[in-house]
Amino acid sequence: MLYKFNMSILLDHQLLEQDIHKNSDFPVAYYQNELEELTNWEGPFHWHPDFEIATALNNPLEYQIDQQ
Predict the structure, then answer these.
(1) What pLDDT, in 10s, does the model give residues 10-37?
(2) Residue 57 φ then ψ, to 5°
(3) Half-sphere exposure of 39 (CA within 13 A, CB side)
(4) How many CB atoms lie within 10 A of CB 11?
(5) How far is it, in rounded angstroms, from Cα 48 to Cα 41?
(6) Exposure of 56 by Cβ count < 10 A (0-12 exposed, 13-18 middle, 19+ buried)?
(7) Number of CB atoms found within 10 A of residue 46's CB
């Protein structure tokens, strides 16, 4: 079973993100999301093997990586 959340994040039963980000011609993707549209400004807990960089214009971001 797959779950689709705001911000277009599709997750499987282990919370692995299912969206495909890879492009063999240029392996970098850019996404702009409006966190203010989410409840408590929180995205769904999920994971993926890809490297991710996030920035915020107005407020700090809090991330969990592994158990930290």
Answers:
(1) 889 999 988 766 666 777 777 777 777 7
(2) -85, -35
(3) 3
(4) 20
(5) 21
(6) exposed
(7) 17
